[in-house]
Amino acid sequence: MDSASGKTGVIVTDVQGDFTTWKEGSLAVNGADQAFVHKVQNATETLAKKGCLIFGIQDWHPADHVSFFTNHPGKNAFEVIKIEGRTQILWPPHCIQGTENARILVDNNLFMAIVKKGKDPRYDSYSGFQDDGGTETEMDSILKRNGIEKVIVYGLATDYCVKATAIDAANAGYKVTVVEGLCRGVAPDTTESALKELKDRGVTILKEL
Ligand code: VGL
Ligand code: ZN
Fold first, then answer.
1. What is the C-alpha separation between 50 and 8, in angstroms, rounded?
2. What does the pLDDT look like over 75-108, one tens digit per residue?
3. Of 52, 66, 86, 161, which alpha carbon lies 20 to 30 A from 127's?
4. CATH for the stretch 8-61+95-206
5. Active site annotation includes 49
6. Is 95 labeled as catalytic in the residue annotation?
7. Taking CB atoms and a 6 Å cutoff, what residues make up the pocket around ligand 1?
8. Which atom of ligand 1 is nearest to the CA of 157?
């Protein structure tokens, strides 16, 4: 990946214990094992050495978050409901602020900044740029402050947070690359359709770096 010609930012998305089988996470993504996390760690170090600026996204929910099925009496995990017209998938409680499995598993010293998302109990937030209520995070302003024009996005999960973050980055005018081999998806069908949608929106999909 060429970074000499312009400023490239890397957005390492939600590589947190609860999304990994390694840490027996509550929302473990298939294939997000220890080897996967090490591969992400190594790739991120390589990109940092090449001069890319590394940013992290951290899912960071309060215990009463709207996306947890446990906060909807009678509902089960992975049920889909409508909330004020929005589609909400009900997830197992995950990435609760200040819990062990909310930690980012990539060396935190690599990050220029870590943007937390999903803090508002009322709204889910797959994208690192904004939540479902339209409230923006500091991601875009931090990227702009650093003169970033291109972003490389990878992490967990391909079909949710990687997808939403890459789409919002493209919509915000960044040239976006997603590295498929550095992502894992929740389900094969939604992962395939996510990659297709990203391509259709002009995002470059690389198999590997
Ligand atoms: C994610 C579901 C709920 C993700 C976050 O990081 O893809 N998925 N919260
Ligand atoms: Zn979440």
1. 10
2. 999 999 999 999 999 999 999 999 999 999 999 9
3. 52
4. 3.40.50.850
5. no
6. no
7. 14, 19, 59, 91, 126, 156-157, 160-161
8. 7
pLDDT of 3 over the 80 cut: no
How many C-beta atoms surround the C-beta of residue 50 within 10 A? 14
pLDDT in tens, 106-155: 999 999 999 999 999 999 999 999 999 999 999 999 999 999 999 999 99
Distance 96 CA to ligand 2 centre (A): 9
Ligand 2 centroid to Cα of residue 40, in Å, is 20
pTM of the shown model: 0.96
Atom of ligand 1 nearest to the CA of 159: 7
Report the 3 state secondary structure along the chain. CCCCCCCEEEEEECCEHHHCCCCCCCCCCCCCCHHHHHHHHHHHHHHHHCCCEEEEEEECECCCCCCEHHHCCCCCCCCEEEECCEEEECECCCCECCCHHHCECCCHHHCCEEEEECCCCCCCCCCCCECCCCCECCHHHHHHHCCCCEEEEEEECHHHHHHHHHHHHHHCCCEEEEEEEEEECCCHHHHHHHHHHHHHCCCEEECCC
pLDDT digits (tens, 9 = 90+) for 176-199: 999 999 999 999 999 999 999 999
How many residues can be counted in the chain? 209
Q: Ligand 1 mean position to 9 CA, how many Å? A: 21
Nearest protein Cα to ligand 1, atom 4: 161
